Amino acid sequence: MANVQQWSCRRTLEADAGVKVNTEPEEMQVQISEFAALTGVSARALRHYEDRGLLGPDRTSSGYRDYSERDATRVAQVRAMIDAGLNTVAIRRYLDCARTEEHGTTLEMCPALRADLDALARRLAAKSAELRETERRLRDLDPVGAGRAPNGGCDAS
After folding, report:
1. What DSSP designation does 157 have?
2. Which of 37, 39, 109, 149 has its C-alpha lying 20 to 30 A from 55's C-alpha?
3. How far apart are CA 32 and CA 34, in angstroms?
4. With the C-alpha atoms ordered 102, 105, 108, 109, is the resulting torsion angle positive or negative?
């Protein structure tokens, strides 16, 4: 997402009259089409993120979305979490755990995320034990392998 780095540069515009206009990154605001190009995310995806509560750009007086550097950081965080396999419901829940630094986006192991990962690990362990027990019971039904068809499948006759 190299284009997002453009946001962190201080831009100086020089008019023909020799007047310099300094624009700090916080003041750099763009609308959806330019923002989509800067972030590498489609306008449709940006609208989807907003609908899901993942992104909240400011609005102009005429109702247009007005994106800022803060929004570019948020999009980078959302994309990193999607790439990691999270859905938008999980992303919304853990977005405050995301940190974007010089080397990219990381997900801090905040208490809610740790608790949910631990609960998921317990559910997976229980399902794994259930699967092993089902396999054991199936093997017990045919302990010597009698009744198997020569090709290893069930004998339908």
Report:
1. -
2. 109
3. 6
4. negative
Beta strands, E only, the chain: 11-14, 20-23, 58-59, 65-66, 98-101, 104-107
135 burial via Cβ count (<10 Å: 0-12, 13-18, 19+): exposed
Q: How far apart are CA 90 and CA 82, in angstroms?
A: 10
Return the SS3 of 112. helix
pLDDT tens readout for residues 120-149: 899 999 999 999 999 999 988 986 765 565
Question: What are the structural domain ranges in the chain?
Answer: 2-108, 109-142
Between CA 112 and CA 115 the distance in angstroms is 5
For residues 51 and 16, the answer to whether their CB atoms sit within 8 Å is no
In single-letter form, the type of residue at position 104 comes to: G
The architecture (CATH level 2) of 2-108 comes to Orthogonal Bundle (1.10)
- Contact (Cβ atoms closer than 8 angstroms) between residue 97 and residue 108: yes
pTM assigned to the model: 0.61
Which of 67, 62, 1 has the alpha carbon at shortest distance from 30? 67
**Token pair in block for residue 155:** 């004998």
